Amino acid sequence: MATPKKPKKPNVSADELKGFYRDMLLIRRFEEKAGQLYGMGLIGGFCHLYIGQEAVVVGLESATKEGDKRITTYRDHGHMLACGMDPNGVMAELTGREGGYSKGKGGSMHMFSRDKHFYGGHGIVGANVPLGAGLAFADKYKGNDNVTFTYFGDGAANQGQVYETFNMAALWSLPVIFVIENNQYAMGTSQKRSTSSPDIYTRGAAFGIPGEAVDGMDVLAVKEAGEKAVAHCRSGKGPYILEVKTYRYRGHSMSDPAKYRTRDEVQKVRDEMDAIEHVRELLLQGKHATEDDLKAIDKEIKSIVNESAEFAKTSPEPEVSELWTDIYVEA
Ligand SMILES: Cc1ncc(C[n+]2csc(CCOP(=O)(O)OP(=O)(O)O)c2C)c(N)n1
Ligand SMILES: [Mg+2]
Asked: Which of 120, 230, 237, 254 has the fewest beta carbons closer than 10 A?
């Protein structure tokens, strides 16, 4: 994993740093709880956890403004929480209940929020990338300065439609930030075994799209790169690529036998590079927070997550008649 030097001093206020800690912790604890509910048989179907990658979405969300859009893959719960969607609605969707964002009919990979400009949740690898460019096209057409964050993985970066999209996005100068969440694996296949170049962002050069690699275990580095990318897109200069080097701690999905990497490899990243621990250290060392302050945040997060699980267990299952609703949107 490429790890540019971590900034020694935070380039944000103490409150923002605490906010990052809180937001990343919310995602981690939420995902741990989702893993538990899955184990208890309360969540069915696919479920892909985001644990380890929290700094990517939290750092980038800090560079957004109202009106900006986001679209991602099936590894999507972190993106929903980071853009302000309600944990109760997300967890209840995972358990297939009426109180879920898709009224329990979408599940983990199919949730949306118009209110938060979150456009899913997509199960087909690579297919959300042209959709992201389409969202950016709409904003350009309307003449506003919104930017669309289009997230996809290192594996998806080898799909043909990604390059068709790069071409159009560059040709039409679309305000889209392509965020490659390079967590080093596509299911059980390591990047080394599947991808011709060690850095993926350089592929944008063929289309004249600038980009850079970012340390995705450092939320401050992600924020800084995000701001640069946003400034580029908002000023009408067209697309930008951020390849964020990160790592997923859990299996690809809940049914991953994890035979393609050693436990030591995962443990080493957890011990030496964890993004939440990094911010925790910055907060304590810089005396921006005390152990008690952090305990209070932990407690608050625990109660939000427990409440979401309770809601997700007690919300009723959708009525059978719901099978026939929400199929078409009334225009
Ligand atoms: C078109 C298509 N091919 C194959 C799959 C099966 N599949 C699901 S996830 C995945 C790996 C994608 O890896 P990556 O893009 O690195 O994302 P990550 O899971 O690491 O977040 C594959 C091959 C799929 N869903 N869609
Ligand atoms: Mg991957």
From this structure: 237
Q: Which domains does the chain have, with CATH numbers?
A: 14-304 (3.40.50.970)
Residue to probe by mutation, ligand 1, list 187, 189, 260, most atoms within 8 Å of CB: 187
pLDDT of 322 > 80? The answer is: yes
Is 79 a pocket residue for ligand 1 (Cβ < 6 Å)?
A: no
φ, ψ at 288 (rounded to 5°): -85, -15
What is the reported pLDDT for 4? 47
Pick the ligand that lies closest to the CA of residue 151: 1
Q: Exposure pattern of 144-183 as b/e (b: 16+ CB <10 Å)?
A: eebbbbbbbbbbbbbbeebbebbebbbebebbbbbbbbbb
Q: How far is CA 154 from CA 113, 213, 249, in A?
A: 26, 12, 16
Share of the chain above pLDDT 90, in %: 94
Q: Which atom of ligand 1 is nearest to the CA of 248?
A: 20
CB of 28 shorter than 6 A to ligand 1: no
Give me the sheet containing 69-71, strands edge to edge.
69-71, 148-153, 176-182, 240-245, 211-215
CB of 252 within 6 A of ligand 1: the answer is yes
How many CB atoms within 10 Å of residue 12? 19
Residue (of 278, 263, 206) closest to 20 by Cα position: 278
pLDDT in tens, 236-292: 999 999 999 999 999 999 989 889 999 999 999 999 999 999 999 999 999 999 999
H or E segment and range at residue 161: helix 160-171
Distance, CA 55 to ligand 2 centroid (Å)? 15
Say yes or no: CB of residue 155 within 6 Å of ligand 1: yes
User: Comparing C-alpha atoms, which of 174, 122, 115, 176 is closest to residue 153?
Assistant: 122
Cβ–ligand 1 contact at 128 (below 6 Å): no
